[in-house]
Write a structure and sequence with these properties.
This protein has 81 residues and is mostly helical. The protein contains 3 helices and no strands. It has one domain.
């Protein structure tokens, strides 16, 4: 397996951090939309569907970025995958 340069690792780390922040924001919006749907706000259901789809996209992107990271962290902890 090829080692990544420090510059590459830092760039990927910053990208992961930004994605996690966006995901946290989307999850809060999703909770807000659930409340809006229960209160009967107009077009809240459409917004909820959109927010859920965006959240899923972010989760997939994070999973793709964290593939090697999660394996390495598991290896450090002594967990076999």
């Amino acid at each position: 397996m090829k080692r990544k340069s420090t510059k590459t690792r830092d760039a990927l780390s910053k990208k992961r951090q930004a994605l996690w922040l966006k995901l946290k924001t989307m999850q809060q919006r999703e909770r807000d939309m659930h409340a809006a749907v229960s209160l009967g706000v107009a077009d809240a259901l459409e917004k909820l569907v959109f927010v859920q789809s965006e959240s899923e996209k972010l989760k997939k992107e994070i999973k793709k970025l964290e593939l090697g990271v999660s394996r390495q962290r598991a290896w450090v902890r002594g967990i076999k995958l």
